[in-house]
Amino acid sequence: MVQGFPDMPFRFSEWSRKLPTRRMSECIQISFAVCRIGIYTCFRALCCKGPPPPRPEYDLVCIGLSGAGKTSMLSKLCGESPENVVSTTGFSIKAVPFQNAILNVKELGGADNIRKYWSRYYQGSQGVIFVLDSAASEEELETSRKELHSALQHPQLCTLPFLILANHQDKPAARSVQEIKKYFELEPLARGKRWILQPCSLDDMNAIKDSFTQLIHLLEEKNPEPVRM
Length: 229
What we know:
Blueprint: H1 8-47, E1 57-63, H2 70-77, E2 91-97, E3 102-108, H3 112-115, E4 127-133, H4 138-153, E5 162-167, H5 177-183, H6 186-189, E6 195-199, H7 205-220
Parallel strand pairs: 1-3, 1-4, 4-5, 5-6
Antiparallel strand pairs: 2-3
């Protein structure tokens, strides 16, 4: 024992016994501090991130003969029931939401007495949806071909991307995409333009949504390719 420090062994022993307890207390305090930081970080991420950026919106015009399925297709894309759908006699506008865009679609009626007024509603369009009945009669198919040719050559539409949907593929008389492409003379007529031709049916909404997604990609392109098939 060192002279002058008679109680040192007792104090050192007592301090050494308290050491684990002190370390445990420090560890607990550090753990609580880390937890507080983690909770604060999560709170900032969840509550202080702010609203997501707005989706871009595009104004489209949807044309095609009566009975092609335009109204039923747009209704299903909007989550509406197509059971009580009535053919559009004038025009209607639907906001069709997609994950990366909102399409404001102006659907024009396809009756004989309405088609001659289609061009009055073309202004401001950024893209075109043309729906045709792939199982239609030869006469209706020829009329549809003429209307598509007229739209592709119209001054307000000729530079816009086109989504051409060959609807009613679930019917026995439906023509294939290759037959439609050949009959409508799309490759020579639409050379240098941006267009997509896709088969579709209301029984396969996933395929229809995929076709619209392809159209959105064309709308997003800043340096578009001359032709898309």
